[in-house]
Structure formats: structure tokens, C-alpha cells
Amino acid sequence: MADPAPIQGRRAAVRDLSVTLKGGREIVSDVGFEIAPGEILCLIGESGSGKTTVSTALLAHVRAGARIASGQISIGDVDVLSQTPRSLLSLRGKTVAYVAQDPTSAFNPAIRILDQMIEVALCHGWDRKTARTRAIEILAEVSLPTHDDFLCRFPHQVSGGQLQRLGIAIAMMLEPAVLVLDEPTTGLDVATQAIVLKLVRQLCTDHGIAALYVTHDLAVVAAIADRVAVMRNGRIVETDAAGPFFKAPSHDYSRELLQAAPDPALARPRTGMALGASAQPILRVAGLAARYGLAPVLNEVSFEVHAGECLAIVGESGSGKTTLSKCIVGQHTQQNGLVELDGVALHARSRNRSLKARRELQYIFQSPFSALNPRKTVGESIGMAHNLVAGSKKNRSQAVVEALTKVGLRADQATLRPDRLSGGERQRVCIARALICKPKVLVCDEITSALDVVVQEAILDLLVRLRDEEGLAMLFVTHNLAVVRNLADRVLVLDKGKTAEIGATEDVLTRPQHPYTQSLLANTLSISTISGQRWGSTS
Amino acid sequence: MSAPVPQAIEDGRARRLLASWRVRRGLAATAAVVAIAYLGPLLAPHGVSDIVGVPFDVASRQAWFGTDYLGQDVFSRILLGGRSVVWMSVLASLLATVCGAALGIFAAYVGGIVDLAVGWLNDVLLAFPLIVLVILFLSMLGHDPSLIVIVVAIGWLPTATRLSRSVALASIHQEYVAWAELVGMPRYKIVFLEILPNITTPLIVQFGALLTWSIGVIAGLSFLGFGIQPPNADWGLMVNENRSGLMIAPWGTVAPIVMIAMFALAVNSLTDAVSDVLGIGETL
What we know:
Chain A is an alpha/beta fold. Chain A is built from 21 helices and 20 strands. Chain A folds into three domains: 167 residues, P-loop containing nucleotide triphosphate hydrolases (Rossmann fold); 64 residues; 203 residues, 3-Layer(aba) Sandwich (Rossmann fold), CATH 3.40.50.
């Protein structure tokens, strides 16, 4: 049975949707919106705001333990929530399709690409040959190779960006009326992200698809959205067309979100910092090379950091930036070259370094969720650091309180275990644990990448304050150029383990010399630039 | 400022466990069997080798469950014969869990060639069926109960080591261990303060599982004549002694079997309940 006439131009409407957990707690309340054919509605909000729950509800799916308590979801004249389990099967894929966040886990690693592509068509009663023809057609549309060699590959044999385009291609197989995309570009590099965004826009316009695009990245929203819905605590607080939203958001929370969003094009110039004021750099790296087994990952990297200065290390995944930070703190031992702290060369292994070096060079991990021992209270975790560097338990509780206050936490939170804290609070605890050691250099490895924008901004503010007030030298490792601008004094751009460019932040971001930096910058979305282009100059 | 409260965590876990009806039931059943084994001897109406009647006599007011193959009181011997299997199985599984945890964490933490060597050693041990391994040692070295405990513990060692190694590995790769390494925390402290607290739950459940199996193995050894020797009373041994009279005086065989089964079932249901309440499925 072949598909009858392509379904085009159907409107998706959600009315008074409420989702409750088994215990009766409402995680989504009275959510309502409409998406016109060819329109992209971006659903934004911090993690835990219920945006993913709403998006899967469009497919009449909720995660285990939750149920749709009330509401109405319709696509064209089809009522989604009143379907039988059987009719739901024919609805999914054909009327509404889903693109998952992480393409590497959404694909079955043991099945060839073509077979996974046509599976959805076969489920809807197509024959293999028609399905294959359609698959090739759609592959061409998402600009992927269509030759047999590519079709017979397994998912691990194609890149992450290609895989995400494949995910979109599969969702497009049966030309659904509605497409639900859940953070489809979060795991991708900026260059790949730009391609995927363009593709989604193109497909929706060409085929009259109503798309619900879930994301937490406001720059992506600026680039792709026709309309925006902001969610908080399970409710939609604002729905607006994208232009007016970015120019003048009406709700306080939307304003807060927009203000917190990092933007590479907007600079907040640093004041009161004299570069190179101290004659001797606090941290000096010279000719550093590192490898994993035989594979080289870092090549002749050299730089200096002075007290009170922040050097950002920017690169895409695989550029060796994490290896660089691990070499400096002495976690990665397959290294050659020189790492000097305060004029003293450091051993490659942290354990062989002096207590002073281990104290003065502190590392903050990417994930605040695994960097704290779940079985220990905050006070114990921080206190343990104090014992180690102070060599005694003297003044321990006083020092813990002091460190907690410095990072903006309350003293009574010391008795809590990490699972009672939010992600941002946990990251503050990690910073407090580093601060109690009285460090001179702080190495921060992607420390905000697991956090929401508002929380991220608060953490960045904290780092700026620590740098200015305590005169800390900082090494800030990130893939996000937008974050760099407000924090870093200088930027080092890493490309495949080599230094592509190093210089003052302003110079690198406005007048990049190296082609790699240029392409990185060109692909990094800036809210102000995009909204300027799309809706005229911002107010 | 609060002094840190390590007790709070344990309290939380204990309270959660005791709130579960299944845990309480398992605990009560286990306690009942242990009470019979340990308090029973005080209540036994007859001595362990007192002859109270003819062999394989049916139940009477003198002997509630009849007499055994020598004319001894079955009821008294049930009350007297539980202690050995209880202490031996508990000790054997405890020994295996502790040594296995030590070895497993060590292998996981040191890694490299040590990890490989421990793995190979485990594989070699695993290649012997447990009962063959145990009987081999016992027939060479004698029937001392403490020897049985040690040999059974050695038999469980590969299982215990494997589990501790894999759960420890998950904890070792967390960043809080990396942090402890970076600030130069002594390694023994990393093991005891950072890793061990995170794997106690699976270890507790592992202990319960080993205990269930140990009960079977140790009772089985007694049955085969490698365990407690006559004239001492022992549940496993009683099954062997009285099986020829099964048709005439079934209690002599059935009663010890019921006791062993009850013990194993009680421990097993307790372990299951504990593992469900602590959500072990998520960590394993």
C-alpha cells in the first residue's frame, strides 16, 4: 500500500495540556499553543521546566510514571490523545514525527543506515522498493550521499552531524504534518549546527511542516524561530512572534533569559586590569605536547598566564583542549614539555608534585554531578580539601563557612548532600572546594556546559568576581565562543592540538587572523547579530 | 557550623529499609531461624546423644517428632543442630564479601597488569565447580568447621571479587575520585572515604546472596559427610542419617530439610527486599 496524497498544511494545536506524575504532582500545567503549517515554534526554558514532556506529548507519549491528565492535542482534524494504541502506530511517523537529541544513541549501532531509514515506511505498509526510492529522495534533500556505499554503512561509520541529518531524514520519510525536534543540535559543533538549522528551516518551509523545536539555546532560537514559547515550572509564561520577543520580551523571566544569554558580538569591556603588570607569569606552559598511546593530541602549545588574568582556551570537540587542561593539572601523564607554576617546573603526575603546587593549582570539573561524592555532605567534601592542604582539622568549620560564603551559598547548606542541590549550586560547591585550598590558578574545564543560561551567567559572574577580588589566574576551557567574551582577557584557539591563534579577546573575536578562528566565529550564532539581520536593528 | 554528620546517611538508609513491609517480614523470618538455632539448645528437652526410644519411632509425648536412626529425639536434635550451619554460612559469606571487596577494589583501582592478573586468577578458580573444589580441600586437610568456612569463602571469592570490581570501577571513573587524586589524597583514604561508601549497597546485597548459597553448600557438605561429624547434631547431617527411615518416621528427614529451606528462604527474601528498597537495580 502506497501512501495516499501527501499530507500538507495541517495545523497543530495543543489546548490546556496537563501532565501529572504518579504521586499527583503536576509537571506540565495548562499548556496551550498552535503551530501553523510551515511555521517553527521554539519551546525554550531551563532544564526541568517540562519542555521535553510537552514535546513528546504531541506524539501521545509520556515517560514512565507520568500521564496526560487533561487537555487536547489535535493535528489537522485528528485528535491525538483519543487514539487507540493501534491507530496511534499509524499516526506516529506519518502525521507527527520525532527527532531525538542525541543521534548516536537514537540509532541502533548494529543495523545499517538504509534499513533503519526504511523501517518506519515498512511499518506503515510500504514495500521495500518504494521505501528505498523514497529514502534516496529524502537523503538527497538533506544533502547526504545517496550511493550504495553510504547506505550500507553502520551508524558509527558516519559523523555526528551526518547522523543528526539522518535522524531528520527518517522523521521526514513519510512527510509528516508535524515535526518535533528535541534539542537536535546540542551535541554538535557550531559548523554542523549551522548546517542542521538551515536544513530544518528549509524542510519546514518547502513542505509546509509545522515544527516544534525544543531548545535551551537562545541563539538557535534567534536563528530559526518564527514564534517563541517560554516555559517555566511547567507553564508557558510567554508566547510571542520571534521578532518582538527578541526586541522587547514581555515577561520578566524572558527578559532574564535574554539578558543571561551569552553573545559573542556584545562586549562588556574589562576595567581596571593592567595586563602584564606582574613581571613573572604565574603559570607558564612551553612546548607542551601530549599523546594518547601513539596518537598525538597536543602539539607544541605554549602560553603564559599572569595573576588576575583569565585565558580562555577555545576549540571544538577533539581539539585537545581538555587534554591540555589535564596535562596542566597533572592528570594526563603522557606529556612532554614544560609546565611551570610560579617559576617552578611541575612533574607530569600530580601525585609527584609538591603540596604547594597541588594547593595552588586547582581544577574544576565539567560535570558538577559527578565531581562531588554523593555519599558526602557538602561540608565534608569541602572540609576534606581543607584537611589535605592545611594538614590539620584546625579552623576547618570556619574555613568551610568562609568558602561557602565566597561562592554565594549559605552556611547551613554544608549539611546537605549533593542530591539536594541544583546543578548551579553543585558547581558553586566545587568552586568553594577549590577556593578553600587558597589557589593561585584555577583551571575550569567546560564548567558551565551542563548548566542553564541563567545559572551559567551567575557562575561566570562569580568567576569574574574571584578573578578581580582574589587576583586569581584562570584558565577557562570552553567550546562556546560566546561565553569567552565577558570573562576572558586573552583567548587561545586550539585546532587539532595546535595553537591556531592566541591574543587579546577583543582582537581574536573581532579580527581573527587564522582561518580556523574565522570559520569558528562565522558559525557561532550571535543573538544580536541575527536579530539585527532578521528583524532590523535592536532597540 | 555543623560538624559533618556521617550518621545521617546511614540513618536514612536504615529508616528506609525498616519502613518496608517486605524487609520487616524477611528480617523477622531470618531472626526466627537464627533464634531457633541459638536459643534452641537452651530449650531442648533431651541431650544431643540421649537415647529416648527405639530407632525410627513415631511421634510420642516423649519425642514430639519421633526418634532418629539411633533412637535419639528428633525435636531436640533440630533445636541443637542449627548453630553450626548458621555461624558457618554467615562467616563464610562475610569472609568472601570482605576479601572479595578488598581484592576487587584493589584490582579496579590499580588497573593494568594487576587487574589482569586478578582476573585470570578468578577465571582459574571459577573453572572448578565449587563443590568439587571444597571437597578436594576437605578430603586433603580434614573436616574442621573453620576450614570449611575458609574453603567455602575461597570458593565464593571470584564471584565476590568480580562484583566489587565492576561496581568499584564505576565509582573510580567519577570525577570526585579524579579530584581526590589531583589534590594528592593518600590512596588508602581514597579507597575508604571516596570509593567504599559508594559501593556498600551492592556489597550488602552481595553478602545476602552469598549467604543464601552458602547455606545450601554447607548443609550439603554436612549431608555428604564432609561437615559436622556424628554424634554432633546438624541439620544437613540429620538428613543423611535419617533418610533410610523416611518411609517409617519421616520427621527425622523432613524437619531438618524444612529448617534449612526456611533459613535460605528467609535470607533470600530479606536480600531481595533490601535490594529493591535500596534501588540496587540502578547501580548494578
